[in-house]
């Protein structure tokens, strides 16, 4: 027991030190112009990322997903990923400056939106709906865009493992992204109540899941969270794919696609496994189009877990 308490205490000290270092770096970044600071962080991450342990996992995932791709090309994708992820972190500091989208503007800004008519449709219909996305581009911009169109969406998200960083991130997101639900026990009930009241929810569907629907992703077996499919089965709501694409020059394109057709069983009920697979297929199509904008260092296929068992 004493040893366990010591280990927990040491872990907390480590998490606190890491969090303080990150917060200090972000404060320094905030002192500089947005574009220069973000570009500098991008430059450094492309050099530091490849020497971290996570880079090995990213390269393993890329080799499994693209077995016929030359290794040099897979390495370039991983480098682009580090740049994208560093920019995502730095952009938190400058969100108020970066998000300049105005539905009534006549000139394009830093943020452009595809599918604005879908946002307006969802706002005016006053019916429950689900928007799903993946960890591509700056996916954090999507709920901000929804709020710009007058949509109040409850977003399910996975907090960082570091509790000190998690508290800071949650506080920052709450001020900019509306209602948030950490993905832990009770989250499904919160989303269900939201849909029951006729409102919308947002879900990330490309996260690692140890149990759930047996599906494939890039032709490899993977478990997929069945929550979205079960919510659709219960509330018969429409499902909309949405993604963020990073464009040259520090610009972003946010796309909301038309409602996705949900697979059904012979009796008309939602086919949970087929729906989970369809979500994977959509995310895979996005990742194949912009592979450097997805989080390849994420253990989506539970490789590390399988190595332990």
UniProtKB/TrEMBL annotation:
Primary localization: membrane
Compartments, record wording: Cell inner membrane
Taxonomic lineage of the native organism: Bacteria, Pseudomonadati, Pseudomonadota, Alphaproteobacteria, Hyphomicrobiales
Keyword Mitochondrion: no
NCBIfam families assigned to the protein according to its UniProt record, in alphabetical order: PRK06553.1 (NF005120)
Protein name, per record: Lipid A biosynthesis lauroyl acyltransferase
CDD domains linked: LPLAT_LABLAT-like
Sorted UniProt keywords: Acyltransferase, Cell inner membrane, Cell membrane, Membrane, Transferase
One GO MF term: acyltransferase activity
Organism (species): Hoeflea alexandrii
């Amino acid at each position: 027991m004493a040893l366990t308490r010591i280990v927990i205490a040491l872990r907390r000290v480590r998490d606190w030190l890491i969090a303080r270092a990150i917060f200090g770096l972000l404060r320094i970044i905030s002192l500089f112009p947005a574009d220069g600071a973000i570009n500098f962080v991008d430059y450094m991450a492309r050099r530091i990322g490849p020497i971290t342990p996570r880079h090995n996992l990213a390269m393993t995932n890329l080799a499994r997903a693209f077995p016929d791709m030359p290794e040099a090309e897979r390495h370039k994708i991983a480098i682009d990923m580090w740049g994208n992820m560093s920019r995502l972190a730095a952009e938190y500091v400058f969100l108020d400056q970066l998000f300049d989208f105005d539905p009534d503007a006549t000139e394009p800004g830093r943020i452009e939106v595809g599918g604005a008519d879908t946002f307006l449709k969802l706002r005016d219909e006053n019916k429950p709906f689900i928007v799903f996305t993946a960890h591509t581009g700056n996916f954090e911009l999507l709920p901000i865009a929804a709020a710009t169109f007058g949509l109040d969406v409850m977003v399910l998200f996975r907090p960082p493992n570091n509790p000190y960083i998690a508290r800071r991130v949650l506080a920052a997101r709450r001020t900019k992204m509306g209602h948030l639900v950490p993905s832990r026990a009770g989250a499904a009930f919160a989303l269900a109540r939201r849909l029951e009241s006729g409102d919308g929810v947002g879900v990330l569907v490309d996260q690692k899941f140890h149990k759930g629907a047996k599906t494939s992703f890039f032709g490899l077996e993977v478990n997929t969270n069945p929550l979205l499919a079960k919510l659709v089965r219960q509330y018969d709501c429409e499902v909309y794919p949405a993604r963020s694409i990073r464009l040259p020059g520090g610009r972003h394109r946010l796309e909301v696609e038309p409602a996705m057709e949900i697979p059904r069983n012979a009796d008309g009920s939602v086919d949970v496994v087929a729906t989970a697979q369809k979500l994977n297929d959509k995310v895979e199509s996005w990742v194949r189009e912009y592979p450097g904008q997805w989080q390849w260092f994420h253990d989506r296929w539970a490789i590390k877990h399988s190595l332990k068992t």
